[in-house]
């Protein structure tokens, strides 16, 4: 029974389930072989091809990021470390490498995560959803039961409201985490990029962002993005210069 | 020996004959300007050249001469070059006569050339021929006569034309070297038509711009323009003509900037300016970037002005600045340049960003001015940043080899659980249905409990609901064909409904209620209902005791029953 529950939880908290999908790892293994041979560009290509097939995992993003780091592509490395972190936020290797990559770009001063992200960042959104909905559903069923059998109302009279309050708080945490993740559109500058005053190529240069600068996307205008970095510098860059989770 | 003989015989035949070639640049000039005539003697040494005749209305002045030595297919050749300035005195087309020279005892001549001289109206006919006013005019005016090198000054240009035939308005161009416009395409405005010398110019355009003198000396500033207009001077219907217009020359004295008291950091900026500087943020940790913004603004051009610099950037790592120039007037005489520079403190002992210095020459006071921005306070926390030999942060390779810096962890051997990225559970309907089901169960149970409690405290409502339930159920039985074929069952069902309703009306148990009971209860029914009720009781008695099923009128009985129930309600 315990094994069944663990298996069920694993499937539910995974980023997505593809029952019956051919989970061929040949591209992943080819990427690993190329990486160990020092052919980082080739390993990048293999890992990226695996991602393009649609099936992803935290180790896949981690390996791609590490290959990009060794290939000198800091922006790509940070982007995929962050993708890996979102899938497996408790992996210490991802934390470690992401910190090193950020140190390369920001000279030891990576962007500080917000308070909410620090509080909830140790679990994925799906984990928070399960943590919230399980007690919430149990609480609803408990309430239904004592309404059907009022004589059972005395049992757990103290624990029941506490349990319900905790379930509601956890639900709010899950909702805020979801809202925080969907409203916060982030990206990583890929290659040295010129920030412009306006969303046209003819617009004069404002300043330059280095490869790996982490930015927030404030506006989208066609193929141009208005992005802002941690020092509140803001400028328009072409979407090709920014790696985004939805791109 | 054979080779020597071959060379000795072949030399006179192998050498090309000497030639004298004349070139004229440009072949068309505006009156007041000069063209350059170059005579080149190839294949021999020409000690001098001379004109075969003296041209009219042209002044030829010797400029220079020279010799060139070159090796061509192993043979050494000498070329002579003579340069003249050709200055016309009037407009028109003039022939430059051939020149001649002696080479190796043989006279050689150049070809004659033609020089076209345009007057200020774009005509190449002498002014005494063009008597009537031209169909287009170009006028230029500037209020200054004397400027410093690098100083901006306003220029106003006026184009007057009869029936301008152009889709795009041409912009007058500067043809004087050492001077440039402040904007490539000056802003223009159209003015009302004007009459000059009896000619009505319908199209009058005013161009407002500025100019900058680039080199010292006395300049004759000239502007030119090509326009296509309708010329009505010879044809009453007009004839389309392309005119080359030249403005009257403006004499301008450009003064060099004084050398004495010139600051060391002077970069050639001339005008009157102010400087502001700011830094953001002013509380950082070592290694965190600070954005330094410097703004220069005032009268003058700042196109080529570099960012004001500090005496020393010790303790900071600086990045190349970016800049943006904006103009605050249409002539581009006043400008504002904003610089942005990222600086990174490398020490925690820093307390301020160094003062910035900017020097310019003020043409009004004729003095150099140096502006200083005060040192910007900054608070730097943290430990000293490690500095690589090149002064830049270490790259990825440096990280891997350094023992002090943590090494990046290696890749994973297994890909883990590969799965498609899908929307989070929190927005998947099937998942949201799980707690929603629990919530629905809770609301349902709650409603049921509340209903039960209500009915417990309201027995009349409970009985009414009970009677209605029995009535609905029994009426369904009465309306079925099976019941109507069985008179006793039909009558029993009718009696059941009647008793339940009468019992509820007189507040007694339904069992044992008869017509007599009802009469004793003082229940008042309308006469027709009373009669219907009596008929129903009679029907029951007949069915039960007389077994008179054949005479049973079920349709009439149901009608009576509905009437009684309606009135009892």
Describe the structure.
The complex is a heterodimer of chains A (247) and B (569). Chain A is of the alpha+beta class and 247 residues long. Chain A has 3 domains: 2-111, Serine Threonine Protein Phosphatase 5, Tetratricopeptide repeat; 125-183, no CATH class; 186-243, SH3 type barrels (Roll), CATH 2.30.30.40. Chain A is built from 9 helices and 8 strands. Chain A has helices spanning 2-13, 26-36, 40-52, 58-70, 74-87, 92-106, 115-120, 125-148, 159-183, and strands at residues 55-56, 186-189, 193-196, 205-209, 214-221, 224-228, 234-238, 242-243. In chain A, helix 4 (58-70) packs antiparallel against helix 5. The longest helix of chain A is centred in the last third of the chain and has 25 residues, at 159-183. Chain A is elongated. The two termini of chain A are 41 Å apart. Chain B starts with a helix and ends with a helix. With 569 residues, chain B is an alpha+beta fold. Residues 1-14 and 386-405 of chain B have low confidence and may be disordered. In chain B, helix 4 (459-479) packs antiparallel against helix 6. Classes of the chains: A alpha+beta (247), B alpha+beta (569). Chains A and B meet through helix 2, strand 1, helix 4, helix 6 and helix 8 of A and strand 30, strand 36 and helix 3 of B.
Topology:
The complex is a heterodimer of chains A (247) and B (569).
Chain A: H1 2-13, H2 26-36, H3 40-52, E1 55-56, H4 58-70, H5 74-87, H6 92-106, H7 115-120, H8 125-148, H9 159-183, E2 186-189, E3 193-196, E4 205-209, E5 214-221, E6 224-228, E7 234-238, E8 242-243
Antiparallel strand pairs in A: 2-5, 2-8, 3-4, 5-6, 6-7
Helix pairs in contact in A: 2-3, 2-4, 3-4, 4-5, 5-6, 8-9
Chain B: H1 2-14, E1 19-25, E2 28-30, E3 35-42, E4 50-51, E5 58-72, E6 75-88, E7 92-96, E8 99-103, E9 106-109, E10 113-118, E11 136-141, E12 146-148, E13 152-161, E14 173-174, E15 179-181, E16 187-191, E17 194-196, E18 199-201, E19 203-213, E20 217-221, E21 223-231, E22 239-246, E23 250-255, E24 271-280, E25 283-285, E26 290-300, E27 309-310, E28 316-318, E29 322-327, E30 334-345, E31 352-353, E32 356-362, E33 367-373, E34 376-377, E35 379-381, H2 396-401, E36 419-420, H3 429-457, H4 459-479, H5 481-485, H6 487-506, H7 515-520, H8 527-546, H9 554-568
Parallel strand pairs in B: 2-10, 12-23, 25-35
Antiparallel strand pairs in B: 1-3, 3-6, 4-8, 5-6, 7-10, 8-9, 11-13, 13-19, 14-21, 15-19, 16-19, 17-18, 20-23, 21-22, 24-26, 26-30, 27-32, 28-30, 29-30, 31-34, 32-33
Helix pairs in contact in B: 4-6, 6-8, 6-9, 8-9
């Amino acid at each position: 029974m315990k094994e069944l529950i663990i298996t069920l939880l694993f499937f539910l908290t995974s980023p997505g389930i593809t029952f019956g999908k051919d989970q061929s790892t040949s591209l992943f293994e080819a990427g690993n072989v190329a990486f160990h041979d020092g052919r980082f560009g080739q390993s990048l290509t293999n890992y990226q091809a695996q991602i393009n097939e649609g099936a992803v995992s935290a180790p896949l993003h981690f390996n791609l990021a590490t290959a990009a780091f060794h290939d000198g592509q800091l922006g790509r490395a940070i982007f995929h470390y962050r993708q890996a972190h979102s899938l497996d936020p408790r992996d210490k290797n991802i934390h470690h490498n992401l910190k090193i990559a950020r140190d390369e770009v920001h000279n030891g001063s990576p962007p500080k995560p917000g308070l909410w992200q620090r509080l909830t960042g140790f679990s994925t959104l799906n984990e928070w959803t399960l943590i919230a909905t399980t007690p919430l559903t149990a609480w609803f069923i408990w309430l239904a039961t004592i309404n059907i059998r009022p004589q059972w109302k005395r049992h757990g009279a103290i624990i029941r409201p506490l349990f319900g309050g905790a379930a509601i708080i956890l639900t709010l945490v899950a909702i805020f985490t979801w809202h925080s993740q969907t409203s916060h559109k982030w990206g990583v500058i890929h290659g040295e990029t010129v920030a412009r005053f306006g969303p046209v190529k003819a617009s004069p240069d404002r300043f330059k962002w280095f490869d790996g600068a982490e930015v927030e996307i404030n506006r989208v205008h066609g193929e141009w993005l208005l992005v802002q970095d941690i020092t509140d510098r803001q400028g328009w860059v072409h979407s090709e210069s920014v790696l985004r989770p939805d791109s | 020996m054979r080779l020597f003989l071959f060379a000795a015989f072949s030399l006179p035949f192998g050498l090309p004959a000497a030639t004298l070639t004349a070139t004229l640049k440009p072949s068309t000039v505006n009156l007041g300007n000069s063209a350059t005539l170059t005579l080149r003697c190839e294949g021999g040494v020409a000690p001098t050249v001379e004109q075969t005749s003296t041209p009219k209305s042209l002044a030829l002045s010797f400029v220079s001469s020279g010799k060139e030595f070159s090796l061509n297919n192993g043979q050494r050749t000498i070329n002579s070059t003579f340069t003249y300035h050709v200055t016309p005195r009037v407009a028109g087309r003039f022939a430059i006569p051939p020149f001649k020279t002696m080479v190796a005892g043989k006279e050689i001549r150049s070809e004659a050339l033609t020089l076209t001289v345009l007057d200020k109206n774009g005509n190449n006919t002498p002014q005494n021929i063009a008597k009537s006013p031209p169909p287009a005019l170009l006028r230029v005016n500037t209020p200054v006569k004397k400027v410093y090198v690098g100083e901006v000054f306003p220029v106003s240009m006026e184009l007057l034309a009869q029936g301008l035939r152009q889709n795009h308005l041409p912009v007058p161009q500067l043809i004087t070297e050492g001077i440039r416009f402040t904007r490539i395409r000056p802003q223009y405005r159209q003015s009302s038509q004007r009459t000059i010398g009896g000619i009505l110019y319908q199209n009058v355009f005013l161009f407002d711009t500025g100019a900058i003198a680039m080199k010292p000396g006395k300049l004759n500033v000239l502007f030119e323009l090509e326009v296509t207009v309708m010329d009505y001077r010879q044809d009453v219907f007009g004839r389309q003509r392309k005119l080359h217009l030249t403005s009257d020359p403006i004499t301008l004295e450009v003064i060099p900037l004084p050398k004495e008291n010139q600051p060391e950091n002077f970069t050639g900026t001339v005008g009157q300016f102010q400087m502001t500087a700011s830094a953001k943020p002013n509380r950082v940790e070592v290694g965190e970037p600070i954005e330094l913004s410097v703004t220069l603004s005032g009268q003058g051009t700042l196109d080529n002005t570099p960012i004001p610099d500090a005496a020393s950037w010790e303790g900071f790592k600086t990045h190349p600045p970016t800049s943006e120039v904006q103009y605050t007037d249409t002539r581009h005489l006043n400008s504002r340049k904003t610089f942005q520079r990222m600086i990174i403190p490398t020490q925690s002992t820093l307390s301020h960003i160094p003062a910035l210095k900017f020097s310019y020459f003020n043409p009004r006071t004729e003095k150099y001015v140096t502006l200083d921005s005060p040192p910007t306070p900054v608070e730097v926390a943290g430990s000293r940043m490690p500095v690589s030999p090149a002064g830049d942060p270490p790259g990825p390779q440096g990280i891997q080899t350094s023992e002090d810096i943590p090494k990046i962890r290696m890749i994973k051997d297994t890909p883990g659980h590969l799965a498609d990225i899908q929307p989070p559970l929190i927005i998947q309907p099937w998942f949201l249905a799980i707690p929603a089901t629990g919530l629905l169960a809770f609301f349902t149970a709650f409603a049921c409990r509340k209903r039960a409690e209500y009915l417990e405290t309201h027995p009349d409502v409970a009985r009414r609901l009970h009677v209605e339930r029995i009535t609905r159920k029994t009426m369904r039985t009465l309306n079925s064909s099976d019941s109507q074929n069985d008179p006793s069952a039909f009558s029993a069902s009718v009696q059941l409904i009647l008793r339940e309703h009468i019992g509820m009306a007189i507040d007694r148990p339904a069992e044992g209620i008869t017509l007599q009971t009802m009469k004793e209860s003082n229940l008042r029914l309308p006469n027709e209902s009373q009669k219907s009720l009596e008929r129903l009781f009679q029907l029951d008695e007949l069915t039960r005791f007389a077994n008179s099923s054949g005479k049973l009128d079920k349709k009439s009985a149901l009608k009576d029953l509905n009437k009684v129930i309606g009135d009892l309600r």
